[in-house]
Amino acid sequence: MRVTHKTGSMVAGVAVAALTLGACSGSSNDSGGDSSGGGAGEQVEVFTWWAAGSEKAGLDALVNVFEEQHPDIEFVNGAVAGGAGSAAKDLLQSRLQANDPPDTFQAHAGMELLDYINAAQLQDVSPLYDEFNLREAFPADLMDLLTHDGQIYSIPSNVHRANVLWANSGVLEENGIDPNATYASLDDWFADLDALQEAGVTPLSVATAWTQVHLLETILLADLGADAYNGLWDGSTDWEGADVSAALEDFEQAMSYTNTDRDGLDWPEATQMVIDGNAAFNVMGDWAVAAFEEQGQELGTDFTANPVPGTDGVFDFLADSFTLPVGAPDEEGARAWLETVSSAEGQTAFNVAKGSIPARVDADPADFSAYQQTAMESYGQDTIVPSLAHGAAVPVAELNAITDATSRFTSGAADLSTFQSELAAAVAAS
């Protein structure tokens, strides 16, 4: 099923099933799903993959706020470590199929939720947006991306920006490039990447397949612009068109500047190459800022963080969010958790620790780091579009097909024409 996104007033990123939110009473919903459960608000099992690092620190901070706001409800940590969330998602799917859901679980906001929705495993939480006064707290673009036919299936705890270009200031200066310069276009950036490559410097670090898809989405966004980029996901932009062909040529050129050991690395190693001065640039989401800051790097002195060339004025978003499963054992506990997740206090505590920014636009920038303040400013004024690589733009099966096609292309197993055809087929199949 295709959905429509519109810049500034986008129609939502999630297809829906006709489910309604039970009022914590254990009644069945309209689609016949059994919402029976404790409903007593005695505890809440929160299922996440936040088991280490800044993610665990953010969860701990959020739990502290939850315990202050809801002291009579016990928090049960259902975090599952491993595979950057893949282990948690596998276990979650097994539990949902066995009708043994947690009270709430973490998922990326947007089309990643489609499989759960189609399986009638999620309840509509849009009434909570009214109860918690969230419709004004979240920007209109985000609300539209979360909503379809008046229904919403998760509440975001944070927002990350995907279209960020990180650079090592020292490496650029040593090669005659102004680290404070910004690039109006990919061509301008490629000129400096050519110079770096000629000087024997790895111009652009990248890692395993998903990071290559991440790079691909930012190149598509840079060349197509927000409207046509959104059109890739709603069918109004032709994947076989000349403009997409040109963008894929730019992606091919960008990949020509990357490290040869990329397929054996994950994003932290690619980011570390920039921190260590073994590469000049890296395109990665803004969770990477924690790696720089934890190693004593200072924004504007040791490293820079700017929109990917050609994407200034656009915020390529992804968000962690929490759901209310059908059959949640303790719906009242889940509602209490969702209230804390959406609150100004909860979002501030969580995002200060995790390094992301609040989904709310009323947070105080003074509470956040220098980088987070720049992201908050962009988020509050720029056009918001959904990330491909991180669950916002397309369903899981479609993303997997796009990832497979990208891997075949970047490994040399497919030429550019075949790559474009495979991308078009991947989107058309869903």
TrEMBL record:
Keyword Nuclease in record: no
InterPro entries, A to Z: Bact_solute-bd_prot1, SBP
UniProt KW keywords: Signal, Transport
Record's subcellular location: Cell envelope
GO terms under cellular component: cell envelope
Signal peptide residues on this chain, from the entry's feature table: 1-17
Keyword 4Fe-4S appears in the UniProt entry: no
Matches recorded under PROSITE patterns: PROKAR_LIPOPROTEIN
Family: Belongs to the bacterial solute-binding protein 1 family.
PANTHER family: ARABINOSE-BINDING PROTEIN-RELATED, BINDING PROTEIN COMPONENT OF ABC SUGAR TRANSPORTER-RELATED
Function: Part of a binding-protein-dependent transport system for a sugar.
Name of the protein in its database record: Probable sugar-binding periplasmic protein
